[in-house]
Design brief:
By secondary structure, the protein is of the alpha/beta class. The protein folds into two domains: about 170 residues, 3-Layer(aba) Sandwich (Rossmann fold), CATH 3.40.50.300; about 80 residues, no CATH class. It is built from 13 helices and twelve strands. The strands form two sheets. It has an eight-stranded mixed beta sheet with strand order 6-7-8-3-9-10-12-11, sandwiched between helices. Strands 2-1-4-5 form a four-stranded antiparallel beta sheet, covered by helices on one side. Helix 5 packs across helix 7. The radius of gyration is 21 Å and the shape is globular. The N terminus is likely disordered.
């Protein structure tokens, strides 16, 4: 059986196209496959959510895009085309420049990603100054503009504040402003709201959506939280054990998910009308790295598993002739259920 799959979204001119991406790590116990042949693409100005539990390969795949996988022990293969250029074939220097000029990343823990010894204004303006090779004054003006843009109140006076003087949500806004100082064409946000309380999570997601619309940059949002995806992106793919198990537009996924794992994730979302009721949870745990079950990797947790599931890995394929792709032997039946 081949790992090669068609791209999820066959746009004529994608900003980013990932083909048959594999990421493997050498460990003392042997090689461990973190990403096992995924393909997807993202159009200019498009938003995409990548959903999965920890260990699903969702972050590792994007770290490969950013060139953050050290080799050895990491090994990356496949194709990662950014504006038609294969990032994996670029010299390190060019790849670093791309990372600093075209692609920016926002991480989960803003507090530790910021430099505690530098004012937030200096951190934002320094990035802009290096990017634009402009004067300090111009960079400072831009930092105020960006702090305004990410809705940090009294931006001018708070330029001189240090990260420890900011709340977690405000630090995340500073991180986003720093990423925007690069004027990226692609922003990758890796669990940007996980460390924040629910109200602040909402505000940050709304902010990211607004900024994405205002600047026209493409946005990839990596998260374990389907609720976050529902609010912020148009299209999503669901990863399990290093592979894509389902993809499609978000409205379709919520209305008619066909993969039992996606359905389980949706069922386990807290709902206003189920307050007080026990939350559904998918039984079992994802397979440990290096211990992938044969056949469909989800079969030990799947209540629909049949004999075929234990021996034959399902490939991603369209259901109902639409753009929704599902890797499940029973997708056709389950999509009606
Ligand atoms: Fe479940 Fe089988 Fe579908 Fe895997 S292929 S999700 S085990 S029904």
């Amino acid at each position: 059986m081949t790992d090669r799959m068609p791209p999820i979204d066959s746009r004529a001119d994608p900003l980013l196209a990932v083909h048959d991406l594999h990421v493997r790590f050498d460990t003392p116990h042997g090689p461990v496959q973190a990403v096992g042949g995924v393909s997807w693409s993202l159009g200019k100005g498009e938003t995409l959510g990548i959903i999965g539990e920890s260990g699903s390969g969702k972050s590792v795949g994007l770290e490969a895009v950013m060139g953050l996988i050290k080799s050895p022990p990491g090994h990356v293969s496949g194709e990662i085309l950014f504006d038609g250029q294969d990032i994996l074939k670029l010299p390190d220097r060019v790849r670093r420049a791309l990372r600093g000029e075209e692609i920016a990343m926002v991480f989960q823990d803003a507090m530790s990603a910021l430099n505690p010894g530098m004012t937030v204004g200096s951190q934002i303006s320094e990035v802009y100054r290096l990017r634009r090779r402009c004067s300090n004054d111009e960079a400072r003006r831009k930092a105020v503009e960006l702090m305004d843009l990410v809705r940090i109140p009294s931006a001018k006076t708070r330029l001189k504040a240090y990260p420890h003087e900011f709340s977690g949500g405000m630090c995340q806004r500073v991180m986003i402003a720093t990423a925007l100082a690069l004027e990226p064409r692609l922003l990758i946000a890796d669990e940007p709201t996980t460390a924040l309380d629910v109200t602040v999570q909402r505000q940050i997601m709304a902010l990211l959506s607004e900024l994405q619309r205002e600047t026209g940059m493409a946005l990839v949002l990596i998260t374990h939280d389907l609720g976050v995806v529902a609010e912020a992106v148009n299209r999503a793919l669901v990863m399990y054990a290093g592979r894509i198990v389902e993809s499609g537009d978000v409205a379709t996924l919520f209305r008619a998910a066909a993969h039992p794992y996606t359905r389980g994730l949706i069922q386990s979302m807290p709902r206003i009308d189920s307050r007080g009721a026990d939350l559904f949870s998918i039984g079992g745990t994802p397979p440990a790295a290096g211990r992938m079950p044969p056949g469909c990797a989800f079969h030990p947790r799947c209540q629909h598993a049949v004999d075929r599931c234990r021996v034959e890995r399902p490939e991603l394929a369209p259901v109902l002739g639409g753009t929704q792709l599902v890797a499940c032997h029973l997708a056709g039946e389950l999509s009606h259920g």
